[in-house]
Amino acid sequence: MTSFEEAETEETVTCLHMTFYHPCQDNKMMFRCLNFCKREQVRADEVAKFGRDSNVCRYNLMDTRVSRIQFSLQFYRKLNSSQFCFEIKNMSKKTKLIVDQTELGYLNKIDLPWKCIICFGDYQILAEVQEGESVDYFETHLHLAEVPILQERCLPSLQPIPENGVSSSLFPSQGKSPIEIDENES
């Protein structure tokens, strides 16, 4: 056997990609302590904390409006499964954490979806999980967004579209109530 054949099988590593945005990031430089250059290894048994306190948090946000510990991420494996996940917990007593449309109060926690947007205050973070196999550690890869992750969009309301294919939400109804028409009438 050659040394290649005897070599350990290479494991893939779960990587959490996080893209950060704040409207004042150019002026206030609140992300100056984050490492956007390369992937960073985090031990699987370590809780990754994000916040203002550099003595406690691995990921520091330099902003007095951010809590000492804003939120934490815990890496874990689901019971009776080989699937790895992250759990996100709001650690701020003053600020609610929004994960997609779920609002988390102080000490509330949920499983982090594979792709989601995390918001608190004016901060927007796009989180995307890249699956891996390693049980010893995971990686984080931080990115900086130039434009808001959440774009205000004018979406029509989720109303049923009539069979003629024209949505009433596209035209102002100007206070008119709906009129029911028999399908045999034209």
Describe this structure in words.
Residues 165-176 have a biased composition (Polar residues). The protein is mainly β. It contains two helices and twelve strands. The protein has helices spanning 3-6, 25-28, and strands at residues 15-21, 40-43, 48-51, 59-60, 71-77, 84-90, 97-99, 102-104, 109-111, 115-120, 123-130, 137-144. Strands 2-12-1-11-10-7-8 form a seven-stranded mixed sheet, with no helix packed on it. A five-stranded mixed sheet has the order 4-3-5-6-9, with no helix packed on it.
Brief description of this entry?
This protein has 186 residues and is mainly beta. Helices cover 4% and strands 33% of the residues.
Give the SSE order as H and E letters: HEHEEEEEEEEEEE
Oligomeric description of these chains: single chain
Total number of helices: 2
Largest sheet: 7 strands, mixed
How many beta-strand elements?
12
Basic shape: globular
Strand order of the largest sheet: 2-12-1-11-10-7-8
| Average pLDDT | 84
Fraction of residues in helix: under 10%
How far the N terminus sits from the C terminus, by CA atoms, comes to 82 Å
SS strand fraction: 25-35%
- Given helix and strand content, the structural type is mainly beta
Radius of gyration: 23 Å
